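User: Here's a chain of 192 residues. Predict its fold as tokens.
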Amino acid sequence: GVQALDSAKEMIPDFIQKKYPPKKIPINKEGDEEIIDHISGGREPVIGENGEVLTPGFVIYYDPESLMMTEEKGVTYFQPKILMDNDFYPPTYMEITHIPELGPKEAAEKSRKELVQSWPHVSDVSMADDGRCFINFMSGQKWNSPCGEEVYVSDGREGCFRIAYYYFFEAAEGWAINFAVMASTFEVIDSK
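Assistant: Prediction complete.
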């Protein structure tokens, strides 16, 4: 418990920890509501020499007890600890990338065109009142059929952030719910 929280906090910039303190978030999994401690994770904005923000950052809340946060080549990943190094289940994870050249709707439409090439079931792009765009996709309805969702959030400039999460069909009421709740906490950081 405490050890997982402490090790997760070491990876997160102090700026994010101070501005976005831990909070309890209710998660409704398979009909049962749990209140789970979440901490903030993410990436600080990149600031230029003149103090201007060159690249916006982000914050997202996650449960460090069950998820491992890593970053590789500008992509932030969240993977369930219980499923790490497990070849039995299809890949289950969330990834967050910045797309500086396309807005949410344009990026979602472009992605949908690519998804229909390799996924048999892809939803149309839907847009929420706040401008976020969503796409759902799945390969079937067997317990281990890969599924996913992409969420596109404006970066407050010309681009967007892509939050994609992948899970297997049986995990739709488990890991998919966790990832959807996390995505709902996502905020762009455009200043320090």
